[in-house]
Amino acid sequence: MKKFIIPALAASFVLSSVGSVLAAPHDQQKIKSVDFIGMDAPKTDQEKNNLMYSKASVEVTYVDGSKKTLPLSYETLFRPGDVINGKTAGITMNANGEIMTKADGTPYVSTAPDMNSLMKVPGLQENTYYMISHYESMPKNENGLENPGTMSLSTVKMDPATGKLTVVDIKPIDFSAVHGIWKPCAGLLTPWNTHLGSEETDPDARAHEANPSKSPVTNFMKNYYNDPTMIGNPYYYGHVPEVMVSANGDTSVVKHYSMGRMAFERVKVMPDNRTVIYGVDSNPGGFFMYVADKAQDLSAGTLYAAKWIQTSTDNEVSANLEWIKLGHASDAEIQQLAETKKFSDIFDVTDDAVKGKAEGYTPVKTPANGKKVEWLKVKSGMEKAAAFLETHRYAAYVGSTVEFNKMEGLDFNEKDNKAYLAISYQENTMLAEPTAPADDIQLPKISAGGVYELSFQPNRKTQDGEKIDSHYVPVSMAGLVMGEDLATPDADGNKANVDKIANPDNLVYSPKMRTLFIAEDSDNHENCYTWAYNVDTKKLSRILSVPGGGESTGLQMIDNLDGFTYLMNSSQNPGYVGYFAGLPSLDGDIKAKKDK
Asked: Where is the signal peptide (predicted)?
């Protein structure tokens, strides 16, 4: 995607609907349905390059049959670099709790805000909330070291008359107990009111071991620990972090080693509070499921990988899914292995196909080795270490499908027992590859990607006949909302149909509005958009445009927060932290508003 130099916008904002509509009498009535009325693609240079904006609206139909149209607009919460209560937004700390600064003493400030979790925490004052925000990357410092990522905790106040949110305090979250946070990307608020984040890449342990002093993870840890002698450990990174927040604003953090190690995008906790399905931002990548031993406790469980059984090869793509058990483990078990094992303790490996075939190695193609084929043999007794520390390698090794291309965000529609999953680019390993070690997925190329729908069944069995102890096992996958490549770019440079999605990334679903929200990270649209897709009417509406060069990120849907409905939305490079607000609660329990 081409980049524009817009210094004033290299920051972070928020979305809201016009506050004046909130005092309307219909706010006291129950809502029957919501229909998003989309906006045109940006036309002026200002719209294309300088604005994060919405000209969309919603038509609200009430149970008495009356209707009202509410316009949507964009409202700023804060920008990285803003000073809030004497503290700078978007900064990061090292392991000693010191703000990381440039040579001139000024702090590094992220231009890559991502996920937001706005949450109510018991014990806070009325109309006061916390918000966790991800910052996927920080600028590199002058000596070329990798800067640690960061998350922040904001204190947010709501005006109960208008729904307007104001950030009154902000601070970085301390990750020193878990060796820092590596490229946090998407995330979600769990049903038990904690924040599940992600580490978007898993450093290649084989490459690290070959040259540990020069590896990215060593550079990262040198910087984080302010120790030039540090040698990194790749097995500390590529996990799902969970953040707990107390009423006084204290945070505690764990990384769930038992959920495997990979390039996590967004995981989704299912209604049983035990089953978790994964979006994985890899090329190629697998599709994974975790079933925890106990509800609301992700510290131990069983990890599974999917096998794609294709049933259609045309644009109405579909497949059945079977499951292979990778293993059972606890966080403590795998963390101990992470601290004591290196790649060569787990695998024998060769890149020589002749040797591999002769000596009984298994060929795999994974994110770590890219286009090359790697020949592996698990060392005796190392199956658990392989499954949970080298998850993609082991998944391919045992025959699951590691061919998905940038599988990104996902969310679940409980009423219909369906999930929605983004495939950002349907190309590369998702096409026919006759010479590849495995070729389960053989689809037509759609560089604009699409959103797939998953169906579920309870208590399925693995390929080996072992029962999976979950009511939420994905059993099929089919294309739902697909992009459309253009034969030649249009007059604005779009390589994909501008009125359809292109390269979906973040997804969130609103059960009250029966609407799936889709955010783009597109090389095929000149501007990235956020879309609303009604799962009943199949109507797709563009509701937000991001400045050129920016990615639409950080979606969080809140159907009812003390009488208001919010859609959080950020953007990276240039970036924003934001929210759509101002729709009456879809539960119809709006408090009376005073005229002003």
From this structure: 1-23
Do 374 and 362 form a contact (C-beta atoms < 8 A)? Answer: no
Residue 135: phi, psi to the nearest 5? Answer: -130, 105
Q: Please write down the HEC assignment for all residues of 119-136.
A: ECCCCCCCCEEEEEEEEC
Buried b / exposed e across 496-505, counting CB within 10 Å, b at 16+?
bbbebbbbbb
DSSP 378-436: EPTT-HHHHHHHSHHHHHHHTT----BS-EEEEEEETTTTEEEEEES-B-GGGS--TTS
Q: Identify whether residues 319 and 184 lie together within a single domain.
A: no
Please say if the pLDDT value at position 315 is more than 80: no
Between CA 55 and CA 119 the distance in angstroms is: 28
Q: What is the structure's pLDDT at 521?
A: 94
Q: What is the pLDDT of residues 470-501, one digit of tens each?
A: 999 999 999 999 999 999 999 999 999 999 99
> What confidence category does residue 248 fall into, taking pLDDT thresholds of 50, 70 and 90?
very high
Q: Which of 482, 503, 525 is the last residue of a domain?
A: 482
Same domain, 336 and 430: yes
Spatial distance between the Cα atoms of 484 and 533, rounded to a whole number of angstroms:
16
Pull the structure tokens for residue 107.
């702090």
**Could you tell me the residue range of the domain that residue 226 belongs to?**
77-249
Whether 378 and 437 map to the same domain: the answer is yes
pLDDT at 27 over 80: no
User: CA-to-CA distance for 184 and 238, rounded, in angstroms?
Assistant: 10
Q: Is residue 158 part of a domain?
A: yes
- 281 and 213 in one domain? no
Nearest Cα to Cα of residue 236 among 198, 202, 281: 202
**Alpha carbon distance 492, 165 (integer Å):** 36
